[in-house]
Amino acid sequence: MKHLKNRINLLLEPLKNIKIYFLRDILKNLFYLFYNRFLIQFSPSSRRHKLVGNPLNWKLFRDFQLKFLINQGLKPQDQFLEIGCGTLRGGIPVIKFLNEGNYFGYDVRKNVIKEARKEVKKNKIKYKNPTLIYISGVNKLSLNIRPNLIWAFLVLIHMEDQNLEDTFKFVSNNLEKDGVFLASVNLGIREKLGGNWYGFPVQKRPLNFYKEIGKKYNLKVKSLGPLKNFSEVISFSSIKQMLEIRLSEK
Known about the structure:
Blueprint: H1 2-12, H2 20-37, H3 44-49, H4 58-71, E1 80-83, H5 91-97, E2 103-107, H6 110-122, E3 131-134, E4 149-152, H7 161-174, E5 180-186, E6 191-197, E7 200-204, H8 207-216, E8 219-226, E9 240-247
Parallel strand pairs: 1-2, 1-4, 2-3, 4-5
Antiparallel strand pairs: 5-9, 6-7, 8-9
């Protein structure tokens, strides 16, 4: 014990001549690090966002989505649709950024939409009037607007082929003429990756698969590249890539 005490005193020796506010800043930074790496998983938001992903990194994924969308040209006046909005892990800052009434999100899990509405209330943004919809599938979705930006983050990877085709059909019929559909996917040799996620499959498909479905519904598909190219913080797998999908010129 005496040896340990001497080691601690030796480590703290350099701090003796540092003004107290420097020590305060060090302690504050250590607390933030501890909170963001550990305590954050016990917050109400973390318990909520656990329904859509790792409770330890939900804030990183939230920040990434807004930054990416703005870099891709998102404007406050855009009519924005999120496919698979979940608990609004990424949707909250988007709702704040957009003009009132311009956010639309749907999910196929009723309990998740219920939690999303709680998240809106918690963040005091009901005045933004987001539209949150629970439906069993995109083929049953009906909107009174034509979105010019449709977003699906880590969603298409959990769709069976028919659901994916229904999504492309919806996009083709509802996307604004000069709009864009941005969707992250797992690209590679086709296979179902091990296990499932909340009862949904985890799919990997080649780029040509998406291009062929796109042709069927008058959509042109291209890859913007791996997600890891757009983030210095999140270690995305190289198979996770972002697709840009637009209406083809007739």
